[in-house]
Amino acid sequence: MKADELKYVVGEVQESKPVYMRFYGRIDEESTRCFNDEFLWVQDYIKPSKIIISINSEGGSVLYGMGTFAIIQQCPIEVETIIEGLAASMASVLWAAGTRSYMRDYSILMIHNPFIREEGETNPDNEQTINAFQKQIETIYHKRFGLSKAKVREIMDGPEGCDGTYFDAKSAVEAGIISPECVLKTSKQICNKVKNQIEGVVEANALQKIMASINTELGNFKPLDNSSSIPNQNHIENSNSQKIMNEEQNFAFGSVCAQLGMDKGTEVNSVITRINALIEAEKKVKEIQNSYDTLKIQKEGLDAQLTNVQNELASVKNELKVYKDAEQAQRNAAIEQFVDDAISDGKIDASAKSKWVEMAQGNFEMVQATLNSIAKRDKISAQIANDPSNIDNAATGMTDAEKELAQKVEAAVGKDFQFKKLD
Question: DSSP characters for 387-413?
């Protein structure tokens, strides 16, 4: 690893001298992986007298952050952590991993309960993970700062309606989290500037960006001088202080191992491997969830399209029915008129109308052709009735034709039916 390519190591690195690192920004897979690699490289290859970590982070993944916490806790070299701007959520746990923990007088500490950002139904596995990390973080704060477990839970829960508890350096001292000696003084001008810029800002990410901007104005990173290192916040000065600190670190590391289902004597590399495996498993779960969500959205889209098609089909069917009903009514009227005309023309008898209408409804073209082929019958009854000669003949009961026929019969056979020879 080349020193000029390092992202989290600041300045020159030399053996047996302090090395300065910083963790700025969100705690996630990429940031913890890079930081862990550089930290272990400094620890194992540079072998400095101590490592000083400057923190300005809004927090992030508990799972990734606990891997970094375990690495810092197990470091054989003294580690000091400083809140240069903001240490919120999981970043406060990284801050607590140091042998000594400091705050700038303008910096902010935020401690709250862990949670997993997931939409949809509650996942029992997630609840178990949250509960495990909850107890683990409670233990870390309890052991690291010497606070009672009840006090730690109160801080993590925060006031009613709030997400956890925010501390400036002064309130952190009053809460017993750090001693006054662990507050690093800056100018009143800087403190007022920070106060003015963060007033009304409650979102951690926004606070982190403001602090980063101020740190840039101050020269980006100003490490502690060797002479400024002081004992930890519990102010342990006796010869057993380092032993007690090591016991606390071992306890915290053992807690991490227990949550991972590993023996407390497990090597750091094995713990990191297990954490990485959990991280990969989490990634796969997210990928599967994303695939599921994509398919679910696609299905909803197809269902919506199907519903639209069904509605459109129903609408078309209704319009077609109206058209067909109108067409059928017009056809029935045409059939009725055609059959009535055939009756009027004397082609068929009126008593046969229903039969012809029924046949026409089944095959109108054939009925039409058939009735058209039948000649019309003249209605002569009215003519006969209106003929004056027929009226006279009707009175005597004989028509002119009948008279003519009678005369011919009489001429042939005589009145008494005696046959004569016809000329």
Answer: -HHHHHHHHHT--HHHHHHHHHHHHHH
Same domain, 184 and 247: yes
* 328-372: pLDDT as tens digits: 899 999 999 999 999 998 889 999 899 999 999 889 899 889 999
Of 89, 92, 101, 255, which is the active-site residue?
89
- Of 57, 61, 112, 255, the catalytic one is 112
Domain range for 239 is 3-266
Question: Looking at the structure, do residues 55 and 163 belong to the same domain, yes or no?
Answer: yes
Are residues 12 and 3 in contact, defined by beta-carbon separation less than 8 angstroms?
Answer: yes
Angstrom distances, CA of residue 234 to CA of 72, 93, 99, 100, 177: 19, 17, 11, 10, 9
402 and 340 belong to one structural domain = no
Classify each residue of 393-416 as buried b or exposed e, where b means 16 or more C-beta atoms within 10 Å of its C-beta. Answer: beeeeebeeeeeeeeeeeeeeeee
pLDDT, tens digit, for every residue of 76-118?
A: 999 999 999 899 999 999 999 999 999 999 999 999 988 755 4
**Active site annotation includes 142:** no
In the annotation, is 112 catalytic?
Answer: yes
